[in-house]
Amino acid sequence: MAIDIPRIPLGDWIEGGLNWLTSEYSIVTRGISRVTQTGIDGLNDALMWLPDWSLLAIIVALCWWLANSRLAIGAAIGLALIWNLGLWDPMIETLTLVVIATLVAVVIALPVGIAAALSERLYRTIMPVLDFMQTMPAFVYLIPAIPFFGIGSVSAIFATVIFSMPPAIRFTTLGIRQVPVELVEAADAYGATRSQKLIKVQLPMSLPTIMAGINQTIMLALSMVVIAAMIGADGLGSEVWRAIQRLRPGDGFEAGIAVVILAMILDRVTQSLRKQRKS
């Protein structure tokens, strides 16, 4: 005899919770949306205001200063190719979204990671949450973004922050927990307070690991803002999405190559910063 087990209405509960949050906190979400959109427009307009050759020269100079001449030459060639393909403006829009999303993610992740490193209870609580956030398919994060912030770049920032934040939290926690016990005990012996140990010993020693987490956050943010073109985000992702809709593989590959070039520049710059901190 078959046993009729009722289906758990998990999807209905989640949808009801999202509807309740959307209706009850609409004032908050509208305020966040306005502030975020202002930041996006401001940074995007500032970068667009600069002549193409001027911004290219600034990026190349930063690569030379922060990394080495090889990266600067590679960045110059890659950015010149993006400009030649007519993808300069979409590249700037993508860079704007990545920069803002990464800043927001890092501002949230660093305090959470530090708190988790110093509190065993919080560490055990937050690790399953991070596992959930990292294993959830990226497309799912686009679903709650739409009722909260509507279609557009603000929803893309929201989804990108949630998707890209876990590595920064994990690496921050890992870096602080890996600080040699002898150094912490020496700080205790000299009478350092908890905040002094954190600022003068634990954070400086864990900075290379934290930078590795920020590097991963940047890479995840870049991948997510491309996917977020499905909900109206501007940039290179919208070029890829448009090419898919129009069945134009050549245009899609051109935009994809531009994404790869931007990703390589950001990755190499953050890696060089990490190596400098180690030395």
Automatic annotation (TrEMBL):
BP GO annotations: choline transport; glycine betaine transport
Keyword vocabulary terms for this entry: Cell membrane, Membrane, Transmembrane, Transmembrane helix, Transport
SUPFAM superfamilies: MetI-like
CDD domains: TM_PBP2
Regions crossing the membrane: 53-83, 95-118, 138-163, 210-233
GO MF annotations, alphabetized: amine transmembrane transporter activity; carnitine transmembrane transporter activity
Keyword set includes Cell membrane: yes
Membrane recorded as keyword: yes
Topology in the lipid bilayer: Multi-pass membrane protein
Ranges where the ABC transmembrane type-1 domain occurs: 91-270
InterPro entries tied to this protein: MetI-like (IPR000515), MetI-like_sf (IPR035906)
GO cellular component: ATP-binding cassette (ABC) transporter complex
Pfam families named in the record: BPD_transp_1
Similarity field: Belongs to the binding-protein-dependent transport system permease family.
Protein name: Glycine betaine/proline transport system permease protein
